[in-house]
Structure formats: structure tokens, C-alpha cells
């Protein structure tokens, strides 16, 4: 290699080094997730899944006919001996239990999707189909490890 070619090659290497250094400084939130970070998020997700299962079991039970589904179980109330006020209170309680169950089940499903994405190797990638695949910001995953979209596409 001639001296002129070496200088050109050295300049290209210097330029690329500076370019990637600046890119990493400007896009700290878009770093590829390391194995350690993925393990960190997996641990958080597994812990949250246990908590959600515990909370769901307080208001319902697993639906034996539909895997992954939960159904609300009403509190025991002897309606034959109850007055109208107690019956209406029981219906109101049931409505509240349904709302709580729906919210918990929705989050439970998102956590399961995130854990499946870890297994498949797609965790931390924005699921928005309109653009080229890109990572979800680390600060978003720290706030919500079950996030499936980046801040832009989540509308945050």
C-alpha cells in the first residue's frame, strides 16, 4: 500500500470512529440491548407476572376453557336472605371486580408478550409496522419493560 493510500485509509478510519462515537453519544437511548440488560428486564417482567397472577387470583380464576384467559368470580353472598340494598351492592362489587380483572389481564397479556419477545430475540424492537424496525428507547423500557412501541409511536 502506498503512502497516499494509507493516509486516505487512516482518514476514513478516523472519520468512521468519530461518526460512530457521535452517533452513540446522541442516541444513548437507542442502544442495542446487551444480554445483561435483557436479563435485567426479563427479571422485572417475571416478577411483575407473579404479582399480576396473584392480583388476578384475588378477583377471579383461570378460565379452563380458554388458555391465558381469566374470569371474574363473585364474592359469596346469600342472595335468598339478602335485602335489595345488599343485592345491588353485590352487583356494584361485581362490576368493580370485572373492571379490575380486565385491567390486570390486559397488563398480564402485555407482560407475557414481552417475555415471548425475549425468547424469540425480538424484545426491545418497536412493533410499529409503518417504519423500518428500530429499537425502543432504554428509558421507555426502564419505565415500562412490557412496552411494545417506542416513545414516538406510543404517542407519549
- Give the C-level CATH assignment of the largest domain: Mainly Alpha
> Strand fraction band?
under 5%
Range of helix content: 55-70%
Number of helices: 5
The gyration radius over C-alpha positions equals 25 Å
**Low-confidence runs:** 14-29
CATH topology of the largest domain: Four Helix Bundle (Hemerythrin (Met), subunit A)
Q: What is the number of independent domains?
A: 2
Order of helices and strands: HHEEHHH
Distance between the termini: 53 Å
CATH architectural grouping of the largest domain:
Up-down Bundle
Total E-strand runs:
2
Shape: elongated
> What profile does the largest beta sheet have?
2 strands, antiparallel
Strand order of the largest sheet: 1-2
Structural class: mainly alpha
Task: Describe the structure concisely.
A two-stranded antiparallel ribbon has the order 1-2.
Q: Keywords, please?
A:
156 residues; mainly alpha; 2 domains; 5 helices; Four Helix Bundle (Hemerythrin (Met), subunit A); two-stranded antiparallel ribbon; elongated
Structural features, described:
It contains five helices and two strands; from the N terminus they run ααββααα. The protein has two domains: 1-28; 31-154, Four Helix Bundle (Hemerythrin (Met), subunit A), CATH 1.20.120.910. Helix 2 (35-59) packs antiparallel against helix 3 (84-120). The protein has a two-stranded antiparallel sheet. It has helices at 3-26, 35-59, 84-120, 138-143, 151-154, and strands at 60-62, 70-72. The model is unreliable at 14-29 (pLDDT under 50). It starts with a helix and ends with a helix. 62% of the residues lie in helices and 4% in strands. 14% of the residues are buried. With 156 residues, it is mainly alpha-helical.
